[in-house]
Request: fold
Amino acid sequence: MTPRSIYVFGLLVLLIGCVEQQPVVENGTVVEVEPADAPAENTGAGGMSGAAVGGLIGSRMGGGAGQIAATVVGVIAGSMAGTAIEGSLQNSSGLRYTVRLDDGRVMTIVQHRESEDRVIQPGERVVIRTSGWVQRVEPVTGPPPNKS
Reply:
């Protein structure tokens, strides 16, 4: 694998990661709030950066099939290392929200608590935004939805 093909591969990975998904929005009411350890919110930047560096280092080893194997191993190991580093740099304090959705289902979501976030209290109306694997509980800022 040449440095140019590694560059093209990295660019394709970056572009695929930028594909926007339509978020799913659900309304509900907070039932319970409690502190929790929040898992790292992976943006993908650490993994992509690590994959690029690992692939570049691997591509400089050996020749022929050995070079290709070293590049693939470098991409995988770099991606894993980059993801781990990104996760370790993030704040792990969060909140566990239990929400009764308008359709009767109950969801529990653990999310990071940013310094500017206020704690949403039980009884408050919220919206849950789901985009890919990321869910976020946010207070409702407008009038309640029309049920007609």
